[in-house]
Design a protein that fits this description.
The protein has one domain: Umud Fragment, subunit A (Ribbon). It contains one helix and nine strands. The strands form three sheets. It has a four-stranded antiparallel sheet with strand order 3-2-1-4, with no helix packed on it. A three-stranded antiparallel sheet has the order 7-8-9, with no helix packed on it. Strand 1 and strand 2 form a beta hairpin. The longest helix has 4 residues. The C terminus is likely disordered.
Length: 87
């Protein structure tokens, strides 16, 4: 979310220093993954793909500006800022 700091430490996602439980991310997608703390600017979102060893997320292309975005089969970010799973 905007104005939060995101990092990955030993495969664990931390937002503002607090670890998040992500039961939907298989262990093999987390192993050996580290990402230094990154502040998310106001009006932007930090988007992570489920496969943490893949390159298609904000670790590669940076925070996404608020708006409507679509990644087929994955996620829509709505203008209101609410993530919604895409069918």
């Amino acid at each position: 979310m905007p104005a939060e700091t995101v990092e990955i430490r030993q495969g664990i996602l931390l937002v503002d220093g607090v670890s998040l439980e992500e039961n939907y991310v298989p262990q093999e997608y987390r192993e050996g993954i580290d990402f230094p703390p990154q502040a998310t600017p106001q009006g932007h979102y930090f988007v992570l793909e489920e496969s943490r060893n893949g390159p298609a997320d904000s670790r590669t292309w940076g925070a996404v500006p608020r708006g409507i975005y679509h990644w087929p089969g994955q996620l829509d970010l709505l203008a209101a800022g609410t993530p919604a799973a895409h069918p």
